[in-house]
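REQUEST FORM: STRUCTURE PREDICTION
Request ID: SP-0412
Submitted by: Lab K.M.
Chain count: 1
Length (residues): 176
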Amino acid sequence: MAQWSVIIPDEQWAVERLFERDVVTVPSGPSEAATGDEVLLVAGENVVALARVEKSGGGDLVLGYLRRSFDEPVPAGELAADSPVTAVGDELFRRLADRLSPPADKKSWLVSVAMPIEATTPAEAVRQFWSHVSELGPQELPTYVWPSGDELAMQAFVLGAEANQDPEEEDEEEDD
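STATUS: Completed
RESULT:
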């Protein structure tokens, strides 16, 4: 079994951070990576996941996630990538893979998208809600998340990253 680093394009990485999927398909060009090989998925200057090649050929690799470290990526450091798919030595591969966050125990989170909608009926309000969600999407619509039972810990996220939604704090920052 061979070991590889695979670069995920920036636009695709932005989408991967937003949606939970079991696999990711990345362009590989001509590559020797084969089904069963292990892969370090690289975005920017960081290793963000450990995966296994599920399918190769046709210029794409289908990678099944084994371990994700999207929120705490590992600096790629000495991992040289001269093409989208690059062979990696065993010692370096293991060192980087071992630094990826192990799967943590899951806990319950409450996630909410709330917006004021003017409508004549509840059903109309729901239709407008889904239309707004579809139009605005994760790039404009804040999503609120907090641990179940701890509403005071609520955080807003936009595009998969924490985002300040307090206009008063933004005004204070501009005044500085």
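NOTES: The domain at 3-99 is CATH 2.30.130 (Archaeosine Trna-guanine Transglycosylase; Chain: A, domain 4).
Reviewed by: T.R.
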